[in-house]
Design goal:
7 helices, elongated, protein-disulfide reductase activity, about 170 residues, chaperone
Amino acid sequence: MNAQIDPALRRERLRYLLLTIVCLALLGGALYFQYVRHEDPCPLCILARYALVLIAIFGLAGAVSRGWAGIQFARVLAALSAIGGMAASGYLIYVQANPLVSCGYDVVEAFVDALPTSRLLPQVFQVQGMCQTMYPPILGLTLPMWSLAAFVVIFLSLALHRPRRAISLR
Protein backbone atom coordinates (compact mmCIF):
# COMPACT_ATOMS: atom_id res chain seq x y z
CA MET A 1 0.00 0.00 0.00
CA ASN A 2 1.33 3.41 -0.97
CA ALA A 3 0.73 5.93 1.80
CA GLN A 4 0.50 9.59 0.83
CA ILE A 5 3.36 11.61 2.32
CA ASP A 6 2.44 14.92 3.92
CA PRO A 7 3.57 17.69 1.48
CA ALA A 8 5.02 19.74 4.35
CA LEU A 9 7.02 16.71 5.50
CA ARG A 10 8.24 16.16 1.94
CA ARG A 11 9.40 19.80 1.69
CA GLU A 12 11.19 19.49 5.01
CA ARG A 13 12.92 16.28 3.93
CA LEU A 14 14.09 17.96 0.71
CA ARG A 15 15.37 20.87 2.78
CA TYR A 16 17.50 18.49 4.83
CA LEU A 17 18.76 16.79 1.69
CA LEU A 18 19.81 20.22 0.41
CA LEU A 19 21.57 20.87 3.73
CA THR A 20 23.51 17.63 3.29
CA ILE A 21 24.51 18.56 -0.26
CA VAL A 22 25.63 22.05 0.82
CA CYS A 23 27.78 20.64 3.64
CA LEU A 24 29.39 18.09 1.33
CA ALA A 25 30.09 20.88 -1.19
CA LEU A 26 31.72 22.96 1.57
CA LEU A 27 33.82 19.95 2.56
CA GLY A 28 34.78 19.55 -1.10
CA GLY A 29 35.81 23.21 -1.11
CA ALA A 30 38.03 22.61 1.91
CA LEU A 31 39.70 19.72 0.09
CA TYR A 32 40.16 21.95 -2.97
CA PHE A 33 42.00 24.51 -0.86
CA GLN A 34 44.09 21.77 0.71
CA TYR A 35 45.13 19.86 -2.40
CA VAL A 36 44.91 22.38 -5.25
CA ARG A 37 45.88 25.60 -3.48
CA HIS A 38 48.16 23.84 -0.96
CA GLU A 39 46.59 25.45 2.11
CA ASP A 40 47.22 22.85 4.81
CA PRO A 41 44.53 22.42 7.48
CA CYS A 42 45.27 23.17 11.12
CA PRO A 43 43.61 21.44 14.11
CA LEU A 44 40.78 23.96 14.21
CA CYS A 45 40.20 23.57 10.46
CA ILE A 46 39.86 19.83 10.98
CA LEU A 47 37.37 20.40 13.80
CA ALA A 48 35.35 22.58 11.41
CA ARG A 49 35.45 19.71 8.89
CA TYR A 50 34.09 17.35 11.53
CA ALA A 51 31.27 19.82 12.17
CA LEU A 52 30.45 19.85 8.44
CA VAL A 53 30.44 16.06 8.31
CA LEU A 54 28.18 15.87 11.36
CA ILE A 55 25.76 18.42 9.91
CA ALA A 56 25.71 16.44 6.65
CA ILE A 57 25.01 13.19 8.53
CA PHE A 58 22.22 14.78 10.57
CA GLY A 59 20.87 16.42 7.42
CA LEU A 60 20.75 13.03 5.75
CA ALA A 61 19.02 11.61 8.83
CA GLY A 62 16.41 14.36 8.53
CA ALA A 63 16.03 13.70 4.81
CA VAL A 64 15.23 10.02 5.34
CA SER A 65 13.13 10.57 8.46
CA ARG A 66 9.58 9.27 8.25
CA GLY A 67 8.10 11.68 10.73
CA TRP A 68 8.33 15.06 12.37
CA ALA A 69 10.01 13.75 15.51
CA GLY A 70 12.98 12.44 13.50
CA ILE A 71 13.27 15.72 11.64
CA GLN A 72 13.18 17.70 14.88
CA PHE A 73 15.86 15.45 16.40
CA ALA A 74 18.08 15.86 13.31
CA ARG A 75 17.50 19.62 13.42
CA VAL A 76 18.68 19.91 17.03
CA LEU A 77 21.79 17.78 16.41
CA ALA A 78 22.66 19.67 13.21
CA ALA A 79 22.23 23.01 15.01
CA LEU A 80 24.52 21.85 17.83
CA SER A 81 27.09 20.76 15.23
CA ALA A 82 26.84 24.18 13.58
CA ILE A 83 27.54 25.79 16.96
CA GLY A 84 30.65 23.60 17.23
CA GLY A 85 31.71 24.73 13.76
CA MET A 86 31.16 28.36 14.72
CA ALA A 87 33.28 27.87 17.83
CA ALA A 88 36.16 26.28 15.88
CA SER A 89 36.05 28.92 13.12
CA GLY A 90 35.64 31.79 15.57
CA TYR A 91 38.56 30.66 17.69
CA LEU A 92 40.71 30.25 14.56
CA ILE A 93 39.90 33.85 13.59
CA TYR A 94 40.92 34.91 17.10
CA VAL A 95 44.19 32.95 16.89
CA GLN A 96 45.07 34.48 13.53
CA ALA A 97 44.26 37.99 14.78
CA ASN A 98 46.41 37.56 17.90
CA PRO A 99 49.90 36.32 17.03
CA LEU A 100 50.75 35.62 20.68
CA VAL A 101 48.00 33.00 20.88
CA SER A 102 49.07 29.61 19.61
CA CYS A 103 47.39 26.45 18.50
CA GLY A 104 50.40 24.62 17.12
CA TYR A 105 51.17 21.19 18.49
CA ASP A 106 48.94 21.18 21.53
CA VAL A 107 46.10 19.24 23.11
CA VAL A 108 43.73 20.03 20.23
CA GLU A 109 46.09 18.66 17.58
CA ALA A 110 46.85 15.56 19.65
CA PHE A 111 43.12 14.98 20.14
CA VAL A 112 42.25 15.51 16.46
CA ASP A 113 45.07 13.27 15.24
CA ALA A 114 44.09 10.55 17.75
CA LEU A 115 40.55 10.24 16.38
CA PRO A 116 39.92 7.08 14.33
CA THR A 117 38.91 9.05 11.23
CA SER A 118 42.37 10.62 11.20
CA ARG A 119 43.80 7.16 10.54
CA LEU A 120 40.98 5.96 8.26
CA LEU A 121 40.91 9.09 6.07
CA PRO A 122 44.16 10.97 6.75
CA GLN A 123 43.77 12.91 3.49
CA VAL A 124 40.69 14.59 4.95
CA PHE A 125 41.06 14.55 8.74
CA GLN A 126 44.78 14.70 9.56
CA VAL A 127 46.33 17.95 10.79
CA GLN A 128 48.99 19.22 8.39
CA GLY A 129 49.24 22.94 9.07
CA MET A 130 49.54 25.59 11.74
CA CYS A 131 46.69 27.86 12.84
CA GLN A 132 48.84 31.00 12.58
CA THR A 133 49.52 30.46 8.87
CA MET A 134 47.73 33.19 6.94
CA TYR A 135 46.64 32.42 3.40
CA PRO A 136 45.51 35.02 0.84
CA PRO A 137 41.99 36.30 1.50
CA ILE A 138 39.10 35.51 -0.80
CA LEU A 139 37.01 38.59 -1.61
CA GLY A 140 38.55 40.31 1.40
CA LEU A 141 37.83 37.54 3.92
CA THR A 142 40.06 34.76 5.18
CA LEU A 143 38.93 31.16 4.85
CA PRO A 144 38.07 30.90 8.58
CA MET A 145 35.85 33.97 8.18
CA TRP A 146 34.03 32.34 5.27
CA SER A 147 33.75 29.18 7.33
CA LEU A 148 32.25 31.09 10.25
CA ALA A 149 29.79 32.78 7.90
CA ALA A 150 28.73 29.40 6.49
CA PHE A 151 28.19 27.94 9.96
CA VAL A 152 26.20 31.01 11.04
CA VAL A 153 23.95 30.73 7.96
CA ILE A 154 23.46 27.01 8.57
CA PHE A 155 22.68 27.58 12.25
CA LEU A 156 20.25 30.42 11.56
CA SER A 157 18.49 28.42 8.85
CA LEU A 158 17.99 25.61 11.36
CA ALA A 159 17.12 27.80 14.36
CA LEU A 160 14.77 30.27 12.70
CA HIS A 161 12.92 28.00 10.28
CA ARG A 162 9.54 26.82 11.51
CA PRO A 163 8.12 24.10 9.28
CA ARG A 164 4.45 24.38 8.35
CA ARG A 165 2.84 21.10 9.21
CA ALA A 166 -0.32 20.02 7.46
CA ILE A 167 -3.48 20.41 9.50
CA SER A 168 -5.24 17.14 10.07
CA LEU A 169 -9.02 17.26 9.66
CA ARG A 170 -9.74 13.93 11.36
